[in-house]
Every structure is written in structure tokens, then in C-alpha cells.
Design a protein that fits this description.
The chain is an alpha/beta fold. Helices cover 44% and strands 14% of the residues.
Length: 285
């Protein structure tokens, strides 16, 4: 197992960034958690501490292990703090321009051997790699939410990714107690979201056609396929905005209008209903 990656940078202190930082810190890896405002990194640290406290209460961690994990996380708004990281993981929102901007900023800051990784759930690794001068050291490392719990990580090779960096990244993922799968071809949505998001869209189509209610569709999927959650529950949890963004991206990249988001999703988004708050999604919690 690789021990080469000892310090990582996490760019973005949202749900995914905080989760990646927590998973790494709990497994002995130093973390520089960077965002553009102190309030974002402060909020992330508070969420991480809350999660670790819960683990202590459940007997999964000791107080000493919790304290050690928190000490390993350095929060900052200064991109310069990433100068010596072995791996820089971008966890910004699903916006191609924003993600490229993040990588362009750190390209000249990080040391020559730093591996660049994006946590994008669907976007082109090859296109994102154009933001840096060393595309051979660029790849996708797609974690799943909630990061500390979910075991899968998709490791995606871009068109220019040097295969020699893969063992290093696989070793890092395994050190976190997770299972990497290699996506050999850089294709929109990779494995999981390529299958999942059109399925979510099709569930909305069933509802629109009056075939069944969201509640009954979810019940059918949970009991008939033994899935832990139904499609409408998943849309509400992940967010209508993310579902629409991925479907729009698929529609453009594959030149196939069949991937276009259903009208109900577009309408919900236009009304500001992301699904993540009570009463905004398909269920009124």
C-alpha cells in the first residue's frame, strides 16, 4: 500500500470537501482545507468536529483519535498554503469554469510532483486538465456522499493522465479504507452517475405520466430492487439543482436530447426548490 501521499490539499469546504478532509485526517493524513472565506472553512471544521464527536459517542473513535484527527486539519483562505501538498483535490461546485479557475490558481503554487485531482461527479477530466501545465499529473477522484461512510471512489483517467500515478492514488484511496474502481475512459458521468442520473430522470417521467406517485415509485424501488432509497428520495437528498446540472451536461456532451431534464425538475429549479430543505422537494418533510 502506498504511503507516498502524506499531505493533501482540499479546495472547497462544502459538504464533499469537508467529508474528504475528515476521511483523510482520520487516517493519519495531513490536510490543508482551503476556501475563499473563513466562514466556509470554519463551518466545515464545525461539521467535522460534530461528526467526530458523534463517532466518539457511538464508540467508533476515542477522544484521543478525535483530537488527533482535528489537529491534522489546517484551514486557510491562502492558496499559498498548498505549496507542499502531495495531492490537491478540488471539491468546488459542478461548474466547469469555476473548477478550471481553481486549478489555474494553484498550478504555479504546488510543488512539481503534486498530483491534481477533481472530485467532479460527471465532467470531463480531459477538459479540466487543460487548466494546468502538467496534465499528466491530473485525474479524477470521485468520492461519494457522505464521504466518511461511502466506500466507493471512482478514479478516472483523463486523456493525458500518466498511468504511473495511478498506483499512488489507488494507495491513497485504500489508506482511507475505501475501494477504488478505475474508469479507464473519460466519459461523462463515469460509471455511477452515467447509470444513476438518467434513472432518476425516468422516475420523474413516470410520475409526470401519472403512472404512480413519488411515494409508490420509491416504495417499489426499495422493495422490488432492494435499493436503500427510492429515486425521489435520492433527488431530494442530492438536490434538484445537481440532478438538472448533470442531465444538462449529458444532453450537451452526448448530443442527445433524451438526457434533457424533465419539465418538473426544471420547474422546481426555476422556483428555487433545490429539494434539500423542508418542503422544497418531492416530499414535505
Amino acid at each position: 500500500m502506498s504511503m507516498g501521499i502524506k499531505k493533501i490539499g482540499v479546495l472547497g469546504a462544502g459538504v464533499m470537501g469537508a467529508g474528504i478532509a475528515q476521511a483523510a485526517a482520520q487516517n493519519g493524513i495531513l490536510v490543508v482545507l482551503r476556501d475563499i472565506k473563513d466562514e466556509y472553512t470554519d463551518g466545515a471544521l464545525a461539521r467535522i468536529e460534530k461528526q467526530l464527536t458523534r463517532s466518539v459517542e457511538k464508540g467508533r473513535l476515542t477522544e484521543a483519535e478525535k483530537a488527533a484527527a482535528l489537529v491534522r486539519i489546517e484551514k486557510t483562505t491562502d492558496a499559498g498554503a498548498l505549496h507542499d501538498v502531495d495531492l490537491a483535490i478540488e471539491a468546488a461546485p459542478e461548474d466547469m469554469g469555476l473548477k478550471k479557475q481553481v486549478f489555474a490558481e494553484i498550478d504555479s503554487i504546488c510543488k512539481p510532483g503534486t498530483i491534481f485531482a477533481t472530485n467532479t461527479s460527471s465532467m470531463s477530466i480531459t477538459e479540466l486538465a487543460t487548466a494546468v501545465k502538467r496534465p499528466g499529473l491530473f485525474l479524477g477522484v470521485h468520492f461519494f456522499n457522505p464521504v466518511p461512510v461511502m466506500k466507493l471512489v471512482e478514479v478516472i483517467s483523463g486523456g493525458s493522465t500518466d498511468p504511473q500515478i495511478l498506483p499512488e492514488v489507488f494507495g491513497f484511496v485504500e489508506r482511507l479504507g475505501k475501494t477504488p474502481v478505475h474508469v479507464k475512459k473519460d466519459s461523462p458521468g463515469f460509471i455511477v452517475n452515467r447509470l444513476l442520473v438518467p434513472y432518476l430522470n425516468e422516475a420523474v417521467r413516470l410520475m409526470e405520466e401519472g403512472v404512480a406517485s413519488p411515494e409508490d415509485i420509491d416504495m417499489a424501488i426499495r422493495l422490488g430492487l432492494n435499493y436503500p432509497a427510492g429515486p425521489f428520495e435520492m433527488i431530494d437528498t442530492g438536490g434538484v439543482d445537481l440532478t438538472v446540472a448533470v442531465l444538462d451536461y449529458f444532453s450537451q456532451e452526448f448530443h442527445d436530447s433524451g438526457y434533457a431534464p424533465r419539465g418538473t425538475l426544471v420547474q422546481m429549479l426555476s422556483e428555487g426548490r433545490t429539494g434539500r430543505k423542508a418542503g422544497e422537494g418531492f416530499y414535505k418533510y
